[in-house]
Amino acid sequence: MEIIGFIWNEVLVNPMTNFLIILSNVLFDNYGLAIIAFTIVIRLITYPLTLRQFRTTRAMQAMQPRLQEIQKKYKDPRRRQQEMMKMYREVGFNPLGCAVPLLIQMPIWIALFRVIRNTLSDAPEELFGLSSRLYDWSFITGAVPLNRDFLFLDLGSPSLPLAILVGLTTFVQQKLSTARAISPSDRSASMNRTMLWMMPLMFAFFTVSVPSGLGLYWVVTSLFGIVAAYIYNGPENFRWRDLFTMEPMLAPRPAAAPDRQDQPSDTEEPAGEEPAAQAPDGPTRKRRSRRRRRRRADAAQRDAEQSKD
User: Fold this and answer.
1) Measured between alpha carbons, how far is 213 from 154 in angstroms, rounded to an integer?
2) Nearest 5°: phi and psi at 138?
3) What is the tens place of the pLDDT at every residue in 82-111?
4) Where are the beta strands (DSSP E) in 155-195?
5) CA separation for the pair 9, 19 (Å, rounded)
6) What's the count of helices (H) and strands (E) in the chain, helices before strands?
7) Distance between CA atoms of 268 and 264, rounded to whole angstroms?
C-alpha cells in the first residue's frame, strides 16, 4: 500500500499539481485557462490511443455484415461466440480497443479531482497539505493562493449549467464515435443506443457532485474528441440530421467496389486484333470472325511467298 501511495502521489498528483500551478501563472493567473491547456496537453499525449479507438470503430463497421451472417447461421450462443472470436483473430481486431482510452483517462480524472480539491481549498489544513506537494521554486510557491473564478464558474464548487454542458458534449462525442449498426434490431444496435444516453447522464450526474474544474476538463475532453472524430472519419460519413435522434451518427461504411482496372473487359479484343465498338451478336459476330480469319490467312500467305523469294 505504501508503494501504491508513493506512486500515486509522486507520479500523478504532485506533478499535476505543480504543472497546473505553472500553467495558471503563465496564463495570466487564470486557473480555468490552465485546466483547458492541461486537458489539451493530455489529449495530445493520448491521441495515439484515440486514433486506435477510431480504427477499432472503423473495423467494427467493416465486420458488421460478417457478424450478421454469423448470428443468422449459428443459433447456439457458444458456437456463435467461437466463430466471432475466430473472425476477430483473422482480421486482427481487439474488442477492448475502444475501452483503452477510457481506462487511461480514469486515473487522470481521479488525480485531477484530488488536485483541484487541494489547490482551490480555503481550509488552512488543506493549504498546509498543499505546501508539502509544491516543488521548491518561487515561481510555483508565489502563485498560491489561486484564482477560483473562470467565466460564470467557481472552479472549486459544483455547477448545474456546467453539468448540462458536460452531458450535451458527451452525447455529441458518443454519436460521432459510435458506428451505427446495419440492422436497427441487432443486439449491438440496442447496446449502442443504451450507451449513447447512459454515458452523458452518468457524466452529468458526476459533474453535479464534483468541483467545476473537473467538469471543465470533461467539456474540453469531449470537444477535442468531437473535432478529432470529425476530422478522422470525414464529413461525408456523417448525417447531421441524426444529431437529434437516439442513433449513432457514424453511418456504416459501404463495401469497397472491386477494382476493375486490372480485370479484362467484356468487349476487350485480343492483342493484334481490331477492337470492336460494341459487342456484336449473331450473324454480325460470325461475319467479323470470318474476316479476321481471312486476314490472318492472307498475311500468312504473304509471309510464306516473301520467305521463298
Assistant:
1) 8
2) -60, -25
3) 777 777 777 666 666 666 677 778 888 899
4) none
5) 14
6) 12, 2
7) 7
Q: Tally the C-alpha atoms within 13 A of residue 217's C-alpha that lie toward its C-beta.
A: 28
| pLDDT at residue 303, rounded to an integer | 65
- Which burial class, exposed, middle or buried, applies to 200 when counting CB atoms under 10 A from its CB (0-12, 13-18, 19+)? buried
Give residue-wise pLDDT tens across range 286-303.
667 777 777 777 776 776
Residue 238, SS3?
Answer: strand
Contacts of 228 (CB under 8 A, 6+ apart): 47, 50, 54
C-alpha to C-alpha distances, 63 to 60, 68, 107, 182, nearest whole angstrom: 5, 9, 32, 10
Q: What is the pLDDT of residues 202-233, one digit of tens each?
A: 999 999 989 999 999 999 999 999 898 888 87
- In Å, what is the CA distance from 40 to each residue of 147, 149, 223? 21, 20, 10
Cis peptide before 254 (omega within 30 of 0): no
Note if the pTM is more than 0.85: no
* 3-state SS class at 269: coil
Could you write out the DSSP letters of every residue in 37-72? HHHHHHHHHTHHHHHHHHHHHHHHHHHHHHHHHHHH
